[in-house]
Structure formats: C-alpha cells, structure tokens
Amino acid sequence: MTREELRNAADSLRTAADAAGAEARERLEAQAGKLDDHAEADRGPDHGRLAHYEHVLSEIADEEPDAADRIETALDSIRAYRETVEGV
C-alpha cells in the first residue's frame, strides 16, 4: 500500500504536467519519474528526500495555478506515504 502512494503521486504529476507550461511540464515529469523509481526500489525515500519533493512541488504549484490542484493531489499522496516512514 505505501509504495502505491508514490505511484499515485507520480500519476497525479503526469496529469498536472498536461496542464502546465513547458518548463514546469519537464520538471513535473522528472519528479514523476523519480517517484516511480522510489516506488520500485528496494527502499523508499527517507524524510529528507520526501521533504525535498514537497518543497519543489509546492514551488511549481505556486507558479502553475492551472496544475496546482493535481500537484496538491500528488502532495497528499506523498504526505500519506511519509506517515509510514520511520524516523523524524
């Protein structure tokens, strides 16, 4: 289930990319690819990496209001996954 949240986030970012400008589209697709990689890896991302994703995605959402809702959906999935990560 927890890795499914990362896949959901990646899917949401791909949908958001469709509504974003060219530069933001590339950034969102890159972030989606990274989340897919984490979903398939032996170990998922740690709190620091997840915080980095949240920061980057929040910046993009501020710059791309047409994509902001789907980015927020991705952030919700990342936060749900983050609740399952041990540590901080």
TrEMBL record:
<protein>
    <submittedName>
        <fullName>Uncharacterized protein</fullName>
    </submittedName>
</protein>
<feature type="region of interest" description="Disordered">
    <location>
        <begin position="1"/>
        <end position="51"/>
    </location>
</feature>
<dbReference type="Pfam" id="PF24430">
    <property type="entry name" value="DUF7553"/>
</dbReference>
<feature type="compositionally biased region" description="Basic and acidic residues">
    <location>
        <begin position="23"/>
        <end position="51"/>
    </location>
</feature>
<feature type="compositionally biased region" description="Low complexity">
    <location>
        <begin position="9"/>
        <end position="22"/>
    </location>
</feature>
<dbReference type="InterPro" id="IPR055975">
    <property type="entry name" value="DUF7553"/>
</dbReference>
